[in-house]
Amino acid sequence: MTHLALASDVRSGDAHPARNGGIPLDLSWVQDVRINLSAAERRVASLPGRRSVKKDAQAAWLLKAVTCMDLTTLNGDDTAERVKRLCAKARSPVRPDVLAALGMAERGVTTGAVCVYHRFVATAVDALAGSGVPVAAVSTGFPAGLAPHDVKLREIEASVRDGAAEIDIVITREHALTGNWTALYQEMRDFRAACGNAHVKAILATGDLKTLRNVVRASLVCMMAGADFIKTSTGKEGVNATRLVTLAMIRAIRDYHGRTGAIVGYKPAGGISTAKDILDYQILMKEELGRPWLEPTLFRIGASSLLADIERQLEHHVTGRYSAFNRHPMS
């Protein structure tokens, strides 16, 4: 088996880059956003035909994707036992015999994080103790984001007290839809302050924002306000992560980095369910932002069913046989 170069240092992203401290709101920058929609559509349409990742290379890219997953359960019927089982999966997301066959048995492969509601933060923190896998909490009235502002702040603070190292907040979509960028900026600043040392991911709910221009403007405002990551979706909207929205958001990250020097991560979430899908997202990250954005410190994938398909692909690479999905439960 050829050495899996891309995945060989799967823990190399453990040290976070300097956090994005934010900048004063620059409304002229926000208002100047323009989108060449036809060019963006051509760019993402070209992905499947332009690049073919096969065999050992594909296995390496997929194993790297596992280390960038925020393994997630956000259901109304979640229980403490389900969360504990999910945490056990996060500790050991790929079967040991498959890892051994890939030459990765000693590499400490885990997922990037486990993402749960506030109610289960303490449960997940206990279940993941000693693993190095952080707990992310969805907050601020997830998924609609329509709770009173003071309640949102208290929810963030409670999750941080319970041990959440990352907070996935949801913005008030009304601010973006009505162009009230000052209100969105102040909201995000408040969320950032309430998170303290916990990293904050700003969920834009891009499927609700109607236009790519709104998506890019909201991305810029949240980064100006200090978001450590920008994230597409809650997974509960009618349209969640897409390649087109991803291109728009990561080019906003590139623009922000170019103007400020600050480094911001990206998290697509919702609707990414196959290994073939995630390869397109990884290729976009590599080509648009560069190699550092393939690490879990700067790239996360909100996923649950995706892991099962990646496991199947890795097992097929090793054994030549596909296994059934029901052999790869999440929790």
From TrEMBL:
Q: Which domain of life is it from?
A: Bacteria
* EC class: lyase
InterPro entries documented for this protein: Aldolase_TIM, DeoC, DeoC/FbaB/LacD_aldolase
Which Pfam families does this one have? Answer: DeoC
Swiss-Prot/TrEMBL keywords: Lyase, Schiff base
| Stated name of the protein | Deoxyribose-phosphate aldolase
In the UniProt record, does the keyword Signal occur?
no
What protein family does this chain belong to? Belongs to the DeoC/FbaB aldolase family. DeoC type 2 subfamily.
**An example Gene Ontology CC term for this record:** cytoplasm
